[in-house]
# Entry
Amino acid sequence: MRVPAGGRRGLAAGLALAGVVAACLVPSALRAQEPGAAPPPTPAEAAGWLASTPPDSAFPWLERLAAGVGARLRVDTLALIPASGAAPAAIPVAFVAPPRGGAGDARPEDEDDGRLRVLVVGGQHGDERAGYEVALRLARDLAAGPLAPLRGALDVAVVPVLNPVGMRLGTRVDGAGTDLNRDHATLSSPAVRALWELHASWRPHVVLDLHEMGPSPYAAQIGIPTHPNADPDLVELARYRVLPYVVRRLAEANVRFHEYVAVHPDPAGPPVAEADTFVSLAPIAASNARNAFTLAGSLGLLLETASGGEIDGLRERSDRLHLMATAVLEVVAGLADELRAATGRGVQDDPSPLLALRARNAEDPDRPVLLWQRWNARGVAVPDTLAPWRPRVARLAALPVPAAWAIRPEAADLAALVARHGIRVQRLSAATRLRVGVYRDPRAPDARERTLEEGTWLVPADQPGQRLAFTLIEPGSADGWFGAAGPVTGHPAGHEPPVVRIGRPFPALPVAPADPVGDARAPGPGGPLPAETP
# Structure
């Protein structure tokens, strides 16, 4: 298989949106306007783009910006991240047009003011500066610049640099060696845990994840949700309403776009033989932010700009990524009603009642190769093909969603993982005997009488994070606690895992308030989870 210049990690592109580049109608009042008085420059802009903004400069710069714009911007500390041999690194979060009650406070749904909530995340990878620079610019431009008209339709929270330690070191991973964009299922890093705590309290409708990739003739790419359990209505909104508008805005600026395409196996993992690789649409795993946030009820989008990594190209790639992010903000503002109706739903609103346990990328017999562009030795984009091309997602096993899952008391670490993702967890206040689904075969649970002891954790399925709860809890799920993505891989044949399914309708059970995160810190069978960051 031939891979374009830039290497396997840098490969990103996608299917042309033939026939769907019809204009999305966005009210002119929601389009970005020409700036009036110049807002303050970011540190990189002030340096003439001869240097990037240091990661430790984000917080003081945002505070100075907030001091100048007043109530339009509020800055908080999302987390403090320990750094070996150095001072802890602060992760700031900036709220533009913040909700009532203060930055970061949860806003009750019945007090929602009608604006669409958008979470912007930059700097998950410490060697990708453009997302960080663009996140700072978006905060500034929304609060005091050309994007200010969007504040009437959007509440925006900006986390400009999620991996400040990695950015200090110039590494993709954080100081502990964790790739943050592969950690959204297990939440092993304090930064990703803090981001999910924000997501759980603020409940954004849309999450934008800003990245760079390697050199490519396709200078702008967007990855939409590809996990087999993603809400199909959200996927359709992304592909047929959001992408066409972004394509048009990029075409106006002569920026070449394709939907994101990935090389498998994961280029960030161990190297494999060339014969074992293939290309597909964006990865289907729940461990990345795009898919995990979509399973949790938001629309997660990955925005990437082509990059050679050099400082002298930082301005150009930041401008491209800023244009792409601006276009997404414009179109989601115009689609606010549709997005609010489509986000946070469970499968009870879906005509397909089954969710996938396992899936794989599959071939399309009608399209065995992907038409592609690559750079030749003279730096000219020339036609090429990539094969094998696997654009389809084939389900290998699936189950219906139960009324709830019951987790044995000693498995507090599993209950804590679910709760950290913002999924509601209750606790049984008295022992109860009932008929449940037992997982001797994780792909075909059988009904048996069981006594659920006092203290059993209960996870009702009827809640916004239902699709993510299924993916994390089901013992047969490839992306969950018992799958390859979790700390526990499988369970002995013939033995029951510490989870059972409660069938529909959900029976009336005696429940009490639950704190699985606190319980998981106590010594237990799986050991304590790391302590929360300050």
In short: The longest strand covers residues 73-83. Residues 401-521 form one domain.
